[in-house]
Amino acid sequence: MAQAFDRKAEDIGNILALEHVNVRIPDQRIATAFYVQGLGLTRDPYIMVGTENMWINIGQQQFHMPTNTPQVLRGVVGLVLPDLDTLVQRLESVREQLAGTGFAWTVEDKHVAVTSPWGNRLRCYAPGAWGELTLGMVYVEFPVAGGAADGIARFYRTVMGAPASVAREASGAVARVMVGHRQELIFRETAAPIEPYDGHHIAIYIANFSGPHDWLAERGLVAEESDPYQYRFTWIVDPDTKARLFEVEHEVRSFTHPMAFRPLVNRNAAQRQRTFQRGRDAFYPGAA
Q1: Would you list the domain boundaries of the chain?
Q2: To pair with 17 at 20 to 30 A between CA atoms, which of 80, 189, 207, 212?
Q3: Which CATH class is domain 7-254?
Q4: 37 burial class (0-12, 13-18, 19+ CB within 10 angstroms)?
Q5: What pTM was computed for the model?
Q6: For 176-196, what is each residue's pLDDT tens digit?
């Protein structure tokens, strides 16, 4: 008898990947101390290498950080990093450089909670928390108003073709949207006031590029017709009621985008001059 498999377990839906989170920063020197020295991530060596922007690689995802007035993402970004013990050591090593900024970190039960110099919040997990992943961006979580979760899940299922579910928790409903292999957008209802939106954005790749665009364009929701391979929208709306539920710009890219899934350079953050090991400069799972 042929072995039975749950084929739905490997479905990812129309959204193929969450590619980057974009927030502005005012100072690349401070950003380097935080993202490269502290978190142990890698500045992309090929694109945006000047002072007007910097791209930071995390596995196959990135932070994009144009140099300008700082932006703060409403919510928190989840990362998987190779080793939390060495992460804590690196964060301690940049404490003095980042004194006087918003930089902070605490060791929690299952993650290290880190705040960037400008207030962006991260949760850093060890390998194993997300299957085989050892380095990458696994979720972006946003706070949303009470009663919004169901409509948000409907939007992603109906318009974007992404699997989405809603769970009821003591603090309120939580919508979870699959946006790639072991990646999620999370929308958590809260009674607290929602901070004003300052223009930060996320970028996703989708397979059915025209379908969501047509739906959004018919309702006047396309914010930018960027080029043949990309468009943007800002409002997540309930497809049933057309109510606007949450504002965050989505940079939507096609699978045929010239930069789709390009290999990203990631360094082994454990490599040091005094403890140098030949052939260990590049990151690979288990690099140390």
Answers
A1: 7-254
A2: 189
A3: alpha beta
A4: middle
A5: 0.94
A6: 999 988 899 999 999 999 999
